[in-house]
Amino acid sequence: MGAKYFGAVVRRKEDPRLLTGRGRYVDDIQLAGMAHAAVLRSPHASARLRGIDAGAARSLPGVLAVFTHADLADRMKPVLESGVAPPGLVSRITFTVRSGIQYPLARDRVHYVGEAVAVAVAESRAVAEDGLERIRVEYEPLPAVVDPEAALEPGAPRVHPEWPDNVAVHFSHAIGDVEGAFRRADIVVRERFRI
To answer: What's the pTM value of the predicted model, to 2 decimals?
Structure first.
């Protein structure tokens, strides 16, 4: 390896380019025939999708296509949400994970604020965003929990209705006789912290 980095002053290479306005970003790339996409996102933490009308967006000059889940249902596979055990702890923890099924574009309900509902593809970013403004979505807002503690309460609205509760990942880790150590301790402090 040869070079030492820990504790050494490492001269930054990118700063002059960025500080003098010569940085290049993905948004700076311009290619012949390039299209731009904009994503319509849910304003609701939980809602049923009652209908999506993209007709006005599709007829806007410069809009090349508008996609909803219904347009791509035969080609769109669900994205599995899942958790993984922290590296190095796999063999020493009790780990339970549930996977939720979601699609790249919401199918019949939205699960969180910002979930993708539709995509407009256009000749420019501005036209794609104008297309989004013409898409009409009928939402039926559902009860939602936005507080993690409240989400654990019995009877709390569920993010994934097919689950019995809102616990996606649970793991516990103990080495040795933890309960015995607490029993033998002179002082035990139990406190709950909210961050």
So the answer is: 0.74
Q: Let me know if residue 94 belongs to a domain.
A: yes
Residue 71 tokens read as 């347009």
Does residue 132 lie in a domain region?
A: yes
Domain with 72 in it = 31-184
At position 125, the amino acid (one-letter code) is R
Q: Find residue 80's DSSP bridge partners.
A: 101
Interatomic CA distance for residues 62 and 128, integer angstroms: 8
127 CB contacts (<8 Å, ≥6 apart)?
Answer: 36, 60, 61, 62, 63
Task: Tell me whether residue 11 is in a domain.
Answer: no
Residue 176 DSSP code: S
Q: Is the dihedral of CA 66, 67, 70, 75 positive or negative?
A: positive
User: How is residue 153 written in tokens?
Assistant: 């309460």
pLDDT digits (tens, 9 = 90+) for 138-185: 999 999 998 989 999 999 999 888 889 998 887 777 788 989 999 999
- Could you give the number of structural domains in the chain? 1
Alpha carbon 61 to its chain's center: 32
